Amino acid sequence: MGQDGIYTVWIAMRRYPWLPPGDYGDSGETGADIMKPLSEIIVIEDGITTVKQLQKILATYTYHGFPVIDGHEELVGYSTRQELIAAIGKYVFHALVVNQHCHLPQAISNLTKAIST
Q1: Domains and CATH numbers, the chain
Q2: Mean pLDDT, consecutive 10-residue segments, the chain of 117 residues?
């Protein structure tokens, strides 16, 4: 019996294209090796980030979306750029609102009612 696993044999029999383990250069990295620490990630803090700060984040960074964390630095959701723009869009021109804190729904990315009034 050969040294190859059943899936390797099946791929070879079906003549599917594939890269054997030695060809893609895996050097044993783990997710922790390539992840950034929280201190280096641009996040939105539920109930802490203000409308003005959110505007600055959106103007400064071109990311597609941002993680949302709570006061204990726990991930509670993810919001796309478009959802954030839509959520704050009607408040952008109100001077009294720019210092209001953003209250984002827990653990969901739909921010249709993101700004407290």
Answers
A1: 30-89 (3.10.580.10)
A2: 78 80 66 83 86 90 91 85 82 61 50 39
